[in-house]
Amino acid sequence: MTLRLEARSTMTMPTINQARLFGTVLLNLVAYLLVAQPDTTVTVRHNLMHYAEAGGLASGSPQTPFWLRANQYGIVPLSSPAGMVRVGSTGHVTWPAGRLKPSVRYGIEAIGLQTRTAAVIIPEAFVSAGLGKFHLYAGRKREVIGLGDSTLSSGFYSWSQNARPMPKVQFGTNGFVAIPFTRGIVAVNALYAHGWFPGTDSMQQSYLHQKTLYGRIGKPGWRVKLYGGLVHNVQWGGYSRFLGKGLSRNGRLPSSLKDYPYVIIAKEPSQLETDNYSRHDRINRFGNHVGSMDIGVEISLPTWTALTYYQHPFDDKSGLALYNLPDGLYGLSLKRRQPAPAAFFSLNHLLVEYLTTLSQSGSTVDIGDSHYEGLDDYFNNFQYLDGWTSGRRALGTPFLTPRREVRQDLQALPGRAWAISNNRVQLLHAGFAGTFRSRAAVEVLVSLSRNYGLFRVPFPAVVGQFSGVARITVPVSWLSGAQLGAAIAVDQGQLLPNNLGGWLSLRKTWSRK
């Protein structure tokens, strides 16, 4: 199972000096904790891993096939052909003899891309400090947030691995932490974060507020365990020169610390100063709110572990009140618990998911209830014109499609050019993974969807789309044990350009303790 929940008046992007100060304070804290331990003999373990990879992709269309770029943390370009060189290091320092077992993790990755132009990106750079049951990290870090099996998933609803990580400061638990008086039967997993969205032509200096709270009923060794929780994300604050009267105050959105409590609780204050707030600030509750309420059941079978889960989306109060049922992501995962008997091929992992987003609490704002509104229009927003995206990639499921990814004839439909042009979707997705006797690993994903566009700008007819990929990783004797990776992907339908493409890479990993 995968569960990754892994003073001034305004907040600003941290400067280099502030980052250095944070690192100094962090190291001093760890040193203090070590000195404070009753055991005078301190054992330090430092595990360090480096990796380097070179690869390239090509396809029959100028657009990269869907499953070669989706859920890759935004590092694979939309345009094809492309070449990539990536290098990175991760480290883990632990003091296992200490009572609180402090630890420090860090990582950095740099990628050189060559498409029509050359670019260098740093998708990951972070430092994390762990102390007992809690952790604190700062920087860019790969993570998936939600309840489900992310390994073969089509993408978690609100926070998947589809976009490049954004800088954050985050505090949370180290996995599930048992509540003492429950004898370990009840455990919680939570995080609280503040982040910074990258600036775009449409929006500058906007922030991320993020928090989760998940619970588990059942001890780790129990055969059946129940899960449930909530993830709440908000894009808030910022400035846009495209926002006029009614949508902002001279292009500016509420960004001060006195506005922050209303972002956290998604509540409109009883009185608003009209000189500082617009009508749409009231409607949006001071930000673009996107999240999900998740439930799941995990069952340990003799050979397999089964996990079934449901992620229910919400953009406003109507989603929290379940007016948008049956919308959401439904999943069933099977993972092998014990090594398979020696055979030519061993199947280790199976997953099936179904996603539907057709309801959206109705096709109009007025749904006959004065307390709730319809037309949720997932991932789109009147104030945040880029929608629920970062780096022009959807932050949640990639099957709610940004406008630039769909076919040209669908981009040209009359009406407003929304950032997300397709958010009414029915999707059936399946995947499996296994290994051959030769230690070669294979993974296959297939996705079949029906796409309706938006309630505001519907497609002329229902648009069908098939996307699939087959990946294989083969250990080779070159370079003292490298891995050769290859993938072939296909898109066929009326949503994306019809396409066939491939990826080839060579990766070397080495470690030091």
Strand fraction band?
Answer: over 45%
Q: By helix and strand content, what is the structural category? A: mainly beta
Give the beta-strand count. 25
Major β-sheet annotation: 18 strands, antiparallel, barrel
Termini gap? 28 Å
* Count of discrete alpha- or pi-helical segments spanning 4 or more residues: 6
Residue windows where pLDDT falls under 50 for at least 5 positions: 1-40
Radius of gyration: 24 Å
Overall helicity: under 10%
Global shape: globular
Round the mean pLDDT to the nearest integer and report it: 90
Could you explain the architecture of this structure?
With 513 residues, the chain is mainly beta. Helix content is 9%, strand content 46%. The protein is built from 6 helices and 25 strands. It has helices at residues 16-36, 66-69, 260-265, 279-284, 317-320, 408-411; strands at 2-4, 45-59, 82-94, 103-114, 118-131, 134-140, 146-148, 168-173, 177-178, 186-196, 207-217, 224-236, 288-300, 304-314, 328-336, 345-356, 389-390, 393-394, 401-402, 420-422, 425-436, 441-453, 458-476, 482-493, 499-512. The strands form 4 sheets. It has an 18-stranded antiparallel β-barrel. Strands 1-7 form a two-stranded antiparallel sheet. A two-stranded antiparallel ribbon has the order 17-18. The longest helix has 21 residues, at 16-36.
Q: Which properties best describe this structure?
A:
9% helix, globular, 513 residues, two-stranded antiparallel sheet, 18-stranded antiparallel β-barrel, 6 helices, mainly beta, single chain
